[in-house]
Amino acid sequence: MEKVKTKRRFSPWMVLVYALLSAWAVTTLYPLLWVLMNSFKLRGRIVSNSFSLPVGDLFTLDNYTKAFSKLNVWGAYRNSLVISISVVVVVILLAGLCAYALVRYQFKGKAFLQSLVIAAMMFPVFSTIIPVFRMMLSWKIVNTDSLWLSLLSTALPQIAGNLSFAIVVLSGYIRSLPIDLEEAAYLEGCSVFQIFFKVVVPLTKPSFATVGIFCFLWSYNDLFTQMFTLRNSDQWAITRLLNEISSQEGTDYGLLAAAVTIVIVPVIIIYFCLQKYIIKGMTAGAIKG
């Protein structure tokens, strides 16, 4: 049988929608391209030729050379990766186990715990930072010269702040999974943890990937917590380093553009490489059943 080819018809409404989306994309992407272009120009050239392409005499790598020689960029990247990866691993493990228990088990106080999880999403981090900071100060893990204790004090509030979101996302996905496979594994003698790690986790990879990506990006970009917990320059993460550059080198537009590019390019690369997992993880739980 021959396939019938259908032509997609664009109504005036669809044309308007695409025009608005295109305009929104341009206004979102152009500032990033502008920063990237000016990171390859000297400071004096940025003021007079800020909208020109960095070609010919305008092109220079001096801003990046200055950034890597003057600033501890690699140390800041290391600290950011240690914090963000630790947050992702702990959040995925704790939120996955909690979501599985809330979905599959019946116990007293279950409805109350679910309400607490939803309620926790309503409190922004700045509303709890003072008691959290005082608690960690009593544990003597902040305001110390120890790099690892400072990184731990940064990761703990981020873990707590991401748990509620992760539990809600994973609960919706786990609830959509058929329970037959878990029952079969239980009849074969698997324990609860074996069922979770060998049956549930493989089936929920898209949702776990979504949670991991969002937690990583939120942790990577979290300047507010870092301002409280990372005091010494050798402890700074990459966003804290950028904040210091903008306050100390605010008039050196070339160095500032290079620093911004160094911070945002890895995030953009990660997003473009993993965007299919974000979309699949956010929609899979809604279409399964």
What does this structure look like?
The chain is mainly α. It has one domain: MetI-like (MetI-like fold), CATH 1.10.3720.10. It is 74% helix and 0% strand. It has 13 helices and no strands. It has helices at 12-38, 43-48, 62-70, 73-104, 110-120, 129-138, 147-175, 180-187, 192-203, 205-220, 223-229, 238-248, 253-287. Helix 7 (147-175) packs antiparallel against helix 11 and helix 12 (238-248) packs antiparallel against helix 13. The protein is globular and about 75 Å long. The protein starts with 11 loop residues before the first helix and ends with a helix. Mean pLDDT is 84; it is low at 285-289. Residues 77-274 form the ABC transmembrane type-1 domain. One of its GO terms (biological process) is transmembrane transport. This is Raffinose/stachyose/melibiose transport system permease protein. The chain crosses the membrane at residues 12-33, 81-103, 115-136, 148-174, 195-220, 253-274. It is a multi-pass membrane protein.
